[in-house]
Design goal:
Elements lengths: L9 H6 L7 H6 L4 E5 L2 E4 L4 E4 L2 H4 L8 H13 L11 H13 L4 E7 L2 H18 L7 E5 L8 H6 L16 E3 L23 H9 L4 E6 L15 H11 L3 E5 L13 H5 L5 E4 L11 E6 H8 L20 H16 L2 H16 L8 E7 L2 E6 L8 H13 L1 E2 L1 E3 L2 E4 L7 H19 L3
Parallel strand pairs: 3-13, 5-6, 5-7, 7-8, 8-9
Antiparallel strand pairs: 1-2, 2-3, 4-10, 9-10, 11-12, 12-15, 14-15
Helix pairs in contact: 4-12, 5-12, 13-15, 14-15
Bound molecules: 4'-deoxy-4'-aminopyridoxal-5'-phosphate.
Length: about 450
């Protein structure tokens, strides 16, 4: 019996069409996880695997947190589901208030979703409906950014800027894109690169072309995650904020990765000192334990929906999900935010970020390394492409890491790290050493 299979049959493996996975390769050589605790997974063949990406940027507080499990089971025993529309339950209101306390001033109304992708769609729809409410119905155009990732639904893919996520689906919605901020002169910057604030001026060109009277919103990740950790150049976000303000365009921060500790604070908005009109979250909100997202808007946006005429039982926003503000997800989120606060994990993440920065940049002189970037407790390497095989090397390196007992993510031509906030510095050291070995092995064709 293949001990990598956790007792699964080939027909069971074949039945599951896995997301964002090379299914042919995976089903030949599966990487199956059977348990998790703290910073470690257990693989089907019984090995501890260090969780170098906190799940998918989700589990910063570590796995198997008893307080979250307890909160979930208590909530289940009391109220397992409540209709999401027209009726409420206590945990959602408590969680909404709790989230607003962590947001920058003014972002204080919360709409719950099931995921980051849903948060994105919700934010884009709110932006367009907002301008209609204001009598500016022509403001519909949505602007994203090259290399941006905003989930997988049609709106998110349309504003997203990763070609591979769009190409096979045919035409997306009509959107425009700002240029990305990955400049070669910024290679090997530590944290925010110095160069690139001027790239925000491209928004002026888009406005020139389409006119602000037709533009609803700009959506960007303050730190782009999925494209391989692109921290914003110094001054860039502020410049975007100013242009949006001058031209009555809403600014949406997609903080699905960056909210709740990844950058050492509750939000990237706080770290970068720029407050958007709408802020999307998910992932770390429940420590990855239950799917949930949230869209936080400026009070003025919410109020403008409430100020419509008509009877007060009339819906202000015909939008929502069967599982919006699911009681069990709310319980998981409340318990997660308790842990983050009680264990001081934003601070811990900020402290560890210096260690990660230090260690990761030591890889600079290895073969195959084109660039290294870091921001908070997130880091990425760009790997030089093998001739004719642009994506092969990151994949091979990630496989070698798995064999050595480390999980990291490979995506496009990058390798991505986002260790848990509760990691120890020796564990980060071990991860980086294993990464150096794996890179050398792949460079040497081993
Ligand atoms: N936005 C951003 C910035 C993300 O990083 C992600 C997920 N990686 C999403 C949206 C989509 O979230 P989900 O996978 O929960 O739908």
């Amino acid at each position: 019996m293949n001990d990598k299979l956790a007792g699964l049959t080939q027909t069971q493996l074949d039945a599951h069409w896995m997301p964002y996975t090379g299914n042919r390769q995976f089903k030949r050589d599966p990487r199956i996880i059977t348990a998790a605790d703290g910073c470690y997974y257990t693989s089907a063949d019984g090995r501890p695997i260090f969780d170098g990406l906190s799940g998918l940027w989700t589990c910063g507080a570590g796995h198997n947190r008893k307080d979250i499990a307890k909160a979930i089971s208590q909530q289940l025993a009391k109220l397992d589901y409540a209709p999401a529309f027209q009726f409420g339950h206590p945990s959602s209101f408590a969680l909404a208030e709790r989230i607003t306390q962590l947001m920058p001033e003014g972002l204080n109304r919360v709409f719950f979703t099931n995921s980051g992708s849903d948060a994105v769609e919700t934010s884009l729809k709110i932006a367009r409906a907002y301008w209609r409410k204001k009598g500016l119905a022509s403001k519909t155009k949505l602007i994203g950014r090259s290399k941006g990732y905003h989930g997988v639904n049609f709106g998110g893919v349309s504003v997203g800027g990763i070609g591979a996520n769009r190409a096979i689906f045919g035409p997306a919605l009509s959107t425009s894109h700002l240029p990305h901020t990955l400049l070669s002169e910024n290679r090997f910057s530590r944290g925010q690169p110095e160069c690139g604030a001027h790239l925000a001026e491209a928004l002026l060109d888009i406005i020139d072309l389409h006119d602000a009277s037709n533009i609803a919103a700009v959506i960007i990740e303050p730190m782009a995650g999925s494209a391989g950790v692109l921290p914003p150049p110094e001054g860039y976000l502020q410049r975007l904020r100013d242009i949006c303000e001058q031209h009555q365009i809403l600014l949406i921060f997609d903080e699905v990765i960056t909210a709740f500790g990844r950058l050492g604070s509750a939000t990237g908005a706080e770290i970068f000192g720029v407050v958007p009109d709408i802020l999307n979250t998910a992932k770390q909100l429940t420590n990855g334990v239950i799917p949930m997202g949230a869209v936080v808007v400026q009070q003025e946006i919410y109020e403008s929906f409430l100020q419509q005429g008509g009877p007060d039982y009339q819906l202000e926003l015909p939008h929502g999900y069967t599982y919006s503000a699911h009681p069990v997800a709310c319980a998981a989120a409340l318990a997660t935010l308790d842990i983050l606060e009680r264990d001081n994990l934003f601070k811990r993440s900020a402290e560890l970020a210096y260690i990660l920065e230090d260690y990761i940049h030591q890889l600079r002189n290895l073969p195959l390394i084109y660039d290294i970037r870091n921001c908070g407790l997130a880091a990425a390497l760009t790997i030089e492409s093998a001739p004719g095989e642009p994506l092969l090397r990151p994949f091979l390196i990630a496989l070698k890491m798995w064999d050595k007992g480390f999980y990291i993510r490979y995506s496009g031509n990058t390798l991505q790290l986002g260790v848990p906030f509760i990691s120890r510095s020796e564990e980060i050291d071990g991860l980086i050493n294993a990464l150096a070995e794996s890179i050398l092995e792949v460079a040497n064709g081993q």
